[in-house]
């Protein structure tokens, strides 16, 4: 299979990105039908961070970060680098030097379905990374791969230019062809949540305004007034 680098990709407009910055991962994930969430193995190294931007995708050979170096050249300010490997790998694919170069290019953060190292330095740089593993093991720079090809990261296929949103809840992918529809659905969900918050503020409880009592009854859940009544029921 031919290995390649695509230099230019289609990116979302600034206006669209600004609107997505008003949202969060959980809202977007729910709004787009519980789709696009990367698996729970990917964890942030920093708390209270959120990044939103277009994906520049990288597929490396396991244990080799040559294509990450190739990707640095094509990154633009605001991009998010999405890295995966052909073959399982938890070696430290990026560290302080690569991140310093990415910051120089204006990259917002990295999503990597592999390993990283120099974590203390990356935290000192205040650079957001969501990673599967942390390991000092180094890599080679001798094997070709792909930059801006469709990549499977965290069990989700990411196309170059897809929108990546990452926060403390995880990482979600919004397909570039669905950006406007997902934004509309997310905003509608926010409006619905405001209504729910108003109900809670007024003293209503969720088991009633979600009409959950019939569900509890259908599941055979029995209410007892106190522990004594429960004990009596058990011994009757």
TrEMBL record:
Q: What is its EC number?
A: 4.1.1.112, 4.1.3.17
Q: Which domain of life is it from?
A: Bacteria
Residues that hold substrate according to the record: 95-98, 117
Name the Gene Ontology molecular function terms of this record. Answer: 4-hydroxy-4-methyl-2-oxoglutarate aldolase activity; metal ion binding; oxaloacetate decarboxylase activity
Query: InterPro entries of this UniProt entry?
Result: RraA/RraA-like, RraA/RraA-like_sf
Gene3D superfamilies for the chain: Ribonuclease E inhibitor RraA/RraA-like
Q: Which residues form a coiled coil?
A: none
UniProt key word Cell membrane: no
Q: Which UniProt keywords apply?
A: Lyase, Magnesium, Metal-binding
**Reported cofactor(s):** a divalent metal cation; Mg(2+)
Q: Which reaction does it catalyse?
A: 4-hydroxy-4-methyl-2-oxoglutarate = 2 pyruvate; oxaloacetate + H(+) = pyruvate + CO2
Complex and partners: Homotrimer. Homohexamer.
Q: State the function annotated in the UniProt record.
A: Catalyzes the aldol cleavage of 4-hydroxy-4-methyl-2-oxoglutarate (HMG) into 2 molecules of pyruvate. Also contains a secondary oxaloacetate (OAA) decarboxylase activity due to the common pyruvate enolate transition state formed following C-C bond cleavage in the retro-aldol and decarboxylation reactions.
Q: Which NCBIfam families match?
A: PRK09262.1 (NF006731)
**The name this protein goes by in its record:** Putative 4-hydroxy-4-methyl-2-oxoglutarate aldolase
> What is the source species?
Lysinibacillus macroides
